[in-house]
Specification:
Order of helices and strands: HEEEHEHHEHHHHH
Distance between the termini: 35 Å
CATH architecture of one domain: Alpha-Beta Barrel
Helix content: 25-40%
CATH superfamily of one domain: Aldolase class I
Shape: globular
Largest sheet: 3 strands, parallel
CATH topology of one domain: TIM Barrel
Number of strands: 5
Number of helices: 9
Bound molecules: flavin mononucleotide
């Protein structure tokens, strides 16, 4: 979600920078917690692939005035533009915006935050020497290019326990030879977590399925990024199917007539799996 107005780069994506947004996110986090879930806010700043339409005609901000042309435009089919190179003041403001958004996330009831360092978004643009040609302390060496990221982490750490702060990089970096993600990353201690996308969307109970070597539902990419539940919340959950298939115990009193397990059956179910 966007950390500030300057961060916007797509239509129909929510933000986390107004009191109204915080209040509405609270309803979401409450619902997730009521269901026993955990929810992190992923903090976004688009940087150069955004478009002046979002900023009353002003070009988007970026580490350097490098048009990200090879990247997909994020505003309809319009071509990307040459962005404005951020001043030191802009970098300080943006670091502060990330920190405020993280604090807002905690106020909204999120369990933690994750920085979007992939997608060739702003932080990634700072790391990448093709999009960051700065000659100040944010450009040049990898230490300088990473400075923006570490300043953000430090600023967020004032508000959020850093054990609840994630940084998501992605295999896009592989083309520069700088980063490759996958199960090897976990094995080599290069990453704490690896994100699954399509498989998770189509299999809400993915960890269970992996654990049981169970077959996976096939993704339907045509329905990705849809505006309703189709292919996001309507896949058959194996847990339910398995529960339905369990033999009734005793007189079957812990089963509802619908075949759905009651709380008692749920407890038995937990211990059985
Ligand atoms: C429909 C869809 C939406 C996604 N949205 C996000 C997102 O909001 N943030 C993010 O970091 N990654 C997002 N991803 C990427 C996934 O988190 C994951 O990194 C990537 O899909 C991994 O590849 P896989 O789908 O083959 O597992 C999305 C992926 C898909 C398919």
């Amino acid at each position: 979600m966007w950390i500030s107005r300057d961060a916007i780069g797509w239509h129909d994506i929510p933000g986390l920078f107004t009191d109204e947004q915080i209040a509405h996110w609270k309803q979401v986090t409450d619902a997730v917690h009521r269901s026993g879930g955990v929810i992190f806010a992923q903090l976004w700043h688009t940087g150069s692939p955004s478009y002046p339409d979002f900023f009353d005609g002003r070009p988007p901000l970026a580490p350097s005035a490098v048009n990200p042309r090879p990247l997909a435009p994020t505003s309809g089919r319009k071509a990307t533009v040459e962005p404005l190179a951020m001043s030191e003041h802009d970098t300080r403001q943006t670091v502060a915006d990330f920190a405020t958004a993280a604090r807002n996330a905690m106020r909204a009831g999120f369990d933690g935050v994750q920085l979007q360092v992939g997608f060739n978004y702003l932080i990634s643009q700072f790391l990448n020497p093709r999009t960051n040609v700065r000659t100040d302390r944010y450009g040049g060496s990898i230490e300088n290019r990473a400075r923006f990221l570490f300043e953000i982490i430090e600023a967020i750490g004032v508000h959020v326990d850093l054990r609840r702060v994630g940084v998501k990089a992605r295999p896009a970096w592989a083309e520069t030879g700088a980063f490759v993600a996958g199960s090897e990353s976990l094995a080599d201690d290069l990453a704490d977590l690896v994100a699954y996308g399509q498989a998770f969307i189509t299999n809400p109970d993915l960890p269970d399925r992996f654990a049981d070597h169970a077959p996976l539902n096939e993704p339907k990419p045509d329905l990705f990024y849809g505006r309703d539940a189709a292919d996001y919340a309507d896949f058959p959950q194996r847990e339910r199917e398995r529960t339905r298939g369990l033999p009734r115990g005793g007189d079957g009193s812990h089963w509802e007539e619908t075949g759905e397990p009651t709380a008692e059956a749920g407890r038995r179910h937990d211990s059985a799996w």
